Amino acid sequence: MSSVRKNFFYNVLYQVLVLILPLVTAPYIARVLGAENIGIYSYTYSVVYYFMLIAMLGINNYGNREIAKVRNNRDELQKTFTSIYTLQIVMTIFMILIYAIYICIVVKANVNIALIQGIYLISVAFDINWFFFGIEEFKLTVTRNTIIKLLSVISILMFVKKKEDVYIYTLIVASSALISQLALWPFVRKYTKLVKIKVKDVTRHIKQCFILFVPIIAVSLYKIMDKIMLGNMTDMSQVGFYENAEKIINIPMGVITALATVMLPKISNLVANGEKEKIERYTRKAMEFEFISSAALTFGLIAVASIFVPIFLGNEFTYSAILVKNLSVTIIFISLASVIRTQYLIPNEKDKIYMFSVIVGAVLNLSINLILIPKFKAVGATIGTIIAEFSVFAYQTYAVRKELDIKKYLKNGIKYIVLAIIMCIIVSSININIEPIVLLVIKVLLGVVIYMSGLIIIKAVEYKEMNIKRILLKFKNLE
How confident is the model at residue 227 (pLDDT cuts 50, 70, 90)? Predict the structure, then answer.
């Protein structure tokens, strides 16, 4: 199987592509479609997303984990793949029927957009990413996604030319999702095949899938429901502002959570083999990586959001800058919680802790949204998201404090946050009367230099202290 380093490289390579492509499409789409049409797309996608979540029933995480456990046993691998995929097909067909009823009875506006969004739901029937992640075959999925994403970007730039082309835009992105799932199927036979199974082989997965489904649906309440609530309680422009702010946050988030995607099957396999020392080492390194990267991205975005957002999205979306600043805070909480989730909770089947933490987050988010959105609109939604993400992180760290050395991880990470705050203060104070894009480049370069220099100093001090401890230890041993 591929090494962690190799898989991480593939994922980061792909996430860098994911980072670059929105730099092309997001500003273009923001200017062509405008806030209201982006809001319509975001609202209708948010609705179909719930149908997709129910259709998958937590299979992405559950399937990944179960395949990782049996990947060395071909017969068990075939049986596990077939039974989990059968459950997925049954659920998807059921949800397609329910979505059709929803469109016929409930939807009154933007019916055509809602119909096109149904392609996303159809794509769920062919989604077997969980299988390839479970066998740690990341190169294949990354290559496929890269090609299809590039083609979709080219299509958007070629065919989306005016506000009314929101239909074409929706068709392109929804179809690319379907093609992306279909593209994996020709490669399945190399690793496994569908075999004859019994009904009980399928039903035995339902309970565990449902346990992992509950936190996923709960997370969606403060990831997706925000936009649905904004659409119903304010207007589509507010949804558009919020959607684009989220897009900016998701660009760096993809890179720093790539590690979690790689580590879930790896840790699941190590747990099955009882290799505790390796698990602890991987977790310690992952925590430090997430602290270093998330602190830099959080306070870096806060420092440049006011100037970056109007340049990136256009002056119509200047309001999104404050939303970006608020949502940036969640990067740290999400990054650290992702390590706990993928390197301890899910591999060790501590699903109830994960489930309860996100339920708490969901309840808090919905409550705060109901209070703040009517008065503060999209800003109120960001406050609800911040509190929700913090509560998830706080509960998970408290729950695993006896199994993981959380105090040590947090103590080690504080210095990176302090360094990032210093960087943010200095960069924010730089205000020169020059072209905005030139000023942005200066701020970014200055931030990188300050943060990287700080990291070098921190590492140098740590290395020096380590050597002093070794010297003292040698003297002690001589006595």
Answer: confident
Helix axes 236-256, 378-399, angle to 10 degrees: 30
Q: If you count them, how many residues does the chain have?
A: 479
SS3 of the chain: CCCHHHHHHHHHHHHHHHHHHHHHHHHHHHHHHHHHHHHHHHHHHHHHHHHHHHHHCCHHHHHHHHHHHHCCCHHHHHHHHHHHHHHHHHHHHHHHHHHHHHHHHCCCCCHHHHHHHHHHHHHHCCCCHHHHHHCCCHHHHHHHHHHHHHHHHHHHHHHCCCHHHHHHHHHHHHHHHHHHHHCCHHHHHHCCCCCCCCHHHHHCCHHHHHHHHHHHHHHHHHHCHHHHHHHHHCCHHHHHHHHHHHHHHHHHHHHHCHHHHHHHHHHHHHHHCCCHHHHHHHHHHHHHHHHHHHHHHHHHHHHHHHHHHHHHHCHHHCCHHHHHHHHHCHHHHHHHHHHHHHHHHCCCCCHHHHHHHHHHHHHHHHHHHHHHHHHHCHHHHHHHHHHHHHHHHHHHHHHCCCCCCHHHHHHHHHHHHHHHHHHHHHHHCCCCCCCHHHHHHHHHHHHHHHHHHHHHHHHHHHHHHHHHHHHHHHHHHHC
Q: How does pLDDT run across 339-398, given as a tens digit for each residue?
A: 888 778 877 878 788 888 888 998 999 999 999 999 999 999 999 999 999 999 999 999
pLDDT, one tens digit per residue, over 312-344 is: 888 989 999 999 999 999 999 998 988 888 778
Q: In percent, how much of the chain has pLDDT > 70?
A: 87
Tokens of 107: 């939807």
CA 464 to chain centroid, in Å, comes to: 37
**Angle, in degrees to the nearest 10, between helices 236-256 and 320-328:** 40
Angle between helix 166-182 and helix 4-56 axes, rounded to 10 deg: 120
The model's pLDDT over 3-17, given as tens digits with 9 standing for 90+, comes to: 555 665 666 666 666
